[in-house]
Fold this protein.
Amino acid sequence: VQLVQSGGGSVQSGETLRLSCVASGFTFSGYEMSWYRQAPGKTNRDFVASITPTGDSTTYIDAVKGRFAISRDNSKNTMYLQMNGLKPEDTAVYYCRDHFIGTWGPGTQVTVSS
């Protein structure tokens, strides 16, 4: 299993970013996928959002509801996280994770300045 992430970067408060996670090595369309983040100085990775295999159901933490949107394109084995209205408290390293065997992506830095 391999997860390759792209996107992220440094933006101002209120701006937008989109993260991508391309999966290989398993039947992507058969498994739920999730995004996590690890804030500066924190040792744990916190759940952010998840999406069912067909994309018909999504789950978000309260802190990102209405601002972030998780989606997937099973034809491209790719999951996305559209992040709108970014806030400084969204600053973190963002990781994708599969629900097949729990592989983590390499992480991508998102930095939001006020």
